[in-house]
Amino acid sequence: MLKITSQHLGQLRKAEIQFGDLTIFVGPQASGKSIFLQLMKLTMDHNHILRTIRQHGFDWQQNFNNFLALYFGEGMQGIWEAQTQVIVNDQPFDLEKVVEQRGKKQQKESLFLIPAQRVITLRNGWPRAFTDYETGDPYVVKQFSERLRLLMESGLGTGQRPIFPQEGRMNKDIRQMINESIFSNAEVRLDKSGMRKRIILKVQNNELPYMVWSAGQREFIPLMLGFYWLMPPAGASKNRSIDWVVIEEPEMGLHPQGISTLLILIMELLHRGYKVVLSTHSPQVLELIWAVQSLAQLNANSDRILKMFNLRKTPYLNDLADNILAKNYRTYYFERSSDQFINAMDISSLDPDDLNNAVADWGGLTEFSTTVSQVVSQAILLTEDIEK
């Protein structure tokens, strides 16, 4: 398993992350989760990143701070200090030395990152090109957008059949879940009637442009296209070059039913052989991980997993559920201290009875509901005492 340790990376004082098959990052906004995930990609794909930046006409002019701005985004140069240290599997990672080499060595991309800002990758219903972004926009946004553009320029952009639902893409039962919880029996199609191609939503006889979709649908479509990139049509279980998938805040804009659908999609990524890393603000995500870990400890069978998602028993889904129970799960809380610096804490047990509140409250995700329950319970007891 991969292990990455960082010290003095921006406001992130120390993070020592041992990755599992599925690794979850939780913590408040601006707590360093996105920076660490971008660092993770940088350690794995640095030569590919450097070559891609240059191929699209961007140049850091042999200036390390310029590279930091090109990769992490404008204004982020200060996150890398003299005392910054990064260690990957017990080996130091010298980013300044890597940048000096300018990506001369060939390297395939091994980590696919779906950023939190994915909704901006579509303009008027079509993915933006890498060079359509400003110099100071984060690299991971540009690269994800370019991947979607290339995907649409290939088979998906012909318009001969719906973009969704599409036979041969994803399991039939999972497609049905997406249909019911996200698109409500509408079709996602390619419109070529004008002088520019665009993705539309066809609802009965109405064709709806991207900007009038619901917020959840607009958030989900670039995410779904990312899943298409990772889940090739029938015949290949995964994208051959990609081993790791990182998704930032996948739950954005989604109703709880939609989040459940998203979670089974993430479990299918695991089933196909990817290692997956998520950052999230949703307790529903950790609720699933806690349930899976608990069922695995109880030696429960796969029927319990299928029942959680209201899925029927089929050979494929049974195999998927068995696979989920056998995976390794890790959860880390990016905790802000009194001096405003961040340290990453391992809370993988997710034990609600743990004496450490960070573990028991799942990194603060259940803290409010716990407090509400206590307040209401105390009010009930007080009322009963008064009535007596």
Question: Brief overview, please?
Answer:
By secondary structure, the chain is of the alpha/beta class.
Description:
By secondary structure, the chain is α/β, with parallel strands linked by helices. The chain has one domain (3-142, 228-387). The chain has helices at residues 33-55, 64-72, 95-100, 139-153, 172-183, 215-230, 256-271, 283-297, 302-308, 315-326, 357-360, 367-387, and strands at residues 3-9, 12-18, 22-26, 80-88, 91-92, 111-114, 122-123, 126-127, 187-191, 198-203, 206-209, 244-248, 275-279, 329-336, 342-346. Helix 7 crosses helix 10. The chain is globular. The termini are far apart.
Care to count the β-strands?
Answer: 15
Strand and helix order: EEEHHEEHEEEHHEEEHEHEHHHEEHH
Provide the spatial order of strands within the biggest beta sheet.
Answer: 5-4-1-2-15-14-3-13-12-6
Number of separate domains:
1
Number of helices: 12
Low-confidence stretches: none
Mean pLDDT: 92
Residues in helix, %:
40-55%
**Beta-sheet strand percentage?**
15-25%
What is the global morphology? globular
Class from secondary-structure proportions: alpha/beta
Intertermini distance: 60 Å
Major sheet size, sense and barrel closure: 10 strands, mixed
Radius of gyration: 22 Å
